[in-house]
Design brief:
The complex is a heterodimer of chains A (542) and B (267). With 542 residues, chain A is mainly alpha-helical. Chain A has 16 helices and no strands. The longest helix of chain A is centred in the middle third of the chain and has 34 residues. Chain B has a domain of 171 residues: Four Helix Bundle (Hemerythrin (Met), subunit A) (Up-down Bundle). Chain B is built from 8 helices and no strands. The chains are: A mainly alpha (542), B mainly alpha (267). Chains A and B meet through helix 7, helix 8 and helix 9 of A and helix 2 and helix 7 of B.
Chain lengths: 542, 267
Amino acid sequence: MSTTTQAVMPETHYLNENYSIRSWLLTGDHKRIAMLYLVTITFFFFLGGMFAALIRLELLTPAGDLFQSDTYNKLFTMHGVNMVFFFLIPSVPAVLGNFLIPIMIGAKDLALPKINLLSWYIFIAGALFSLTALIYGGVDTGWTFYTPLSSGYLKTPVIVMGVGILIAGFASIFTGLNFIVTVHRMRAPGMTWGRLPLFVWANYAASLIMVLGTPVLAITLILLVLERGFHIGIFDPKLGGDPVLFQHMFWFYSHPAVYIMILPGMGVISEIITCFSRKRVFGYTFIAFSSIAIAVFGFVVWAHHMFVAGISTYSAMVFSLLSYAVAIPSAVKVFNWTATMYKGSVTFETPMLYAFGFIGLFTIGGLTGLFLAALGLDVHIHDTYFVIAHFHYVMVGGMVMAYLGGMHFWWPKITGRMYPEGWAKLAALITFVGFNLTFFPQFILGYLGMPRRYHAYPEEFQVLNVLSSAGASVLAVGFILPAIYFLWSLRYGEIAGPNPWNAKGLEWQTSSPPPTTNFLETPVVTEEPYHYGSDEEVTFGH
Amino acid sequence: MATSQTPTPAAEHRHHPAWAHQFDDMDQQREASSFAMWVFLLTEIMMFGGLFTAYLIYRLKYYDAYVAGSSSINVVWGFANTLVLIGSSFTMAMGVWAAQKGRRQQQVLWLVLTIVLGTAFLGVKAIEYKDKYDECHIPGQVIGKGFNATGGIGCSGEGANIAEELQHPKNANGREVPGKPAAAAEQIARQTEIFFVFYFAMTGLHATHMIIGIGVLFWLVWRAHKAEFGPEYYTPVENFGLYWHFVDIVWIYLFPLLYLINRIPHR
């Protein structure tokens, strides 16, 4: 970063063009909408994190002494709902994707700026419903809303929460729709599909799932609300309905939804790895199409959540096999990232540390997924902490790491200022250590038979649970630190300049922060992406 | 990746009032909007698809009840509504054509006719819902007197007592033919509730789309009245036409799935 000392902030950019509240609330600028989303989902991340902290606090001791079991049910439900629907689903697409996709393909904005703004307002409306349900005591269904528990037995505001998620789903649909149209119709001259950055490919694949899957969740929640509101038997067996149908419909969205969460993160990692290896990405086509393959396979594996729900053995065998198949494109990505680093000039800036974390933790999360896809083994570890650990290795160890890595990588582009590198490296390290301390013991707990969703447990599990809770407090430090120094850097950070990482890609060709129209003149693309090669100056990192 | 000057959009395009800043020219704008509408319709297909799947699952489980429920709804109204809706698709297509040609008065006329036909459809639907309300065929125990297909007190209407009809069905000539035993008839009649759940969920979701569509139509009439559409810019009318035709096509599937399963001849 020796080259950045003389950098200056551009005179006008998207942040300082207009300071009025109105110019933010009625903006069509994808970069400003990304910032609106950033503030919103950061709130929900810390809200969801607070519930997680309370869960870990309860689990310090074997006896259920801090909360009643009903309260505990609400805690893990609110943790899951907030984190899944109001943080993970929008995280990378709605913040980084919104900010970067138009710039990366050389467009002035997304194809539908008003729909983009509408998506944020819809998200806020859904969030308000969710918060209302929270204020009225919270919901204790689990984030999966299984019937007939959710539709008949519980006295909590399930309808309000269901409607909130239904509404927030449309925000996700509109984001996905906008990305698809933008990638198809708004690319700059010369930006062929074969030159699209891998981040764009990954978000495109995730958008396909948002557009095709979310409407099914919408209709499922509508039926759930109808059943609960009018007491009619759609899913409740007592009234003639079929609870397994609910599970099919719910997981038809909610399994692909985990790929909505992870695919954009994989896109971030592809960008970071190639930049800090100073090397052309290995197997561009394979990485690009493995994203599409994950999106396609992701739609035909949902019933692996239902192996013990009484589905037929033969369909379970098919779903088990297909679930194994998803591992192939996922592994393709990991191999390609590793091969990209091979013989590259690898440097260890903060985004790269998060990328390292991602590769290791995602690999563990992915491989333990294969345990769960195996029919026989799943019967043993279904609904245990093994599942919790697997899911969090992918979602926190994978997705949150990628999100933080991406935030660090593009922070200078978004704000024009560098974050403090020393603190950031420390935070990345703390996050990694804290994460493993939290979740690795849960693999063992689950394998030993500790079920999920209970506030009390036998005494022999205490040591591992204490380790996990201790790890959670370390992890919290790792998450709070970036929030502090990112805010600090807004005023005191070093001026970044247009391209602090010496990276390729159109987003680094414009000023930091970019002007409202992204580029002063429409760029013409003449090269493949990731053209890191011999012609490069060797000033970086020395 | 180099940056350089690109060709600027043609001058006449630049000055079109509907031209949005993010597009290079009007062609790109039209293609993007049209593509977006097709993707949106894809999401609609998935949403209705979930509902159709659930309908199908229960149709396989409770086929007799589906037949009985289907026979109790008014096929004449349903058929009339099908014609009304196909007619509205025609007037909508003409509206798009008039917009492309830039004929302002015809545009307004065809769009208003579409509103009229759409409203007629909803009116018929309201009559049908009212009949079902009187017959106590609204699922659940919340609305009206609660669901009752076995001769509830105060449930008026020719087909209100489905159990009775299953026990004593009549053939096409109005002559009574052997029916189901009383216990079986009662059970099937009670199970028609699930059919009515889907009848109301599917036609309700469809009607919601119609109501939204009519709302948008008013807005389009206003814009057409102000002569905003012409050969260079008619995307909103064209895209809305796609939406309207989609909603029609959904009905084309709903009509046989709900009204024509296997009707008992005399009704």
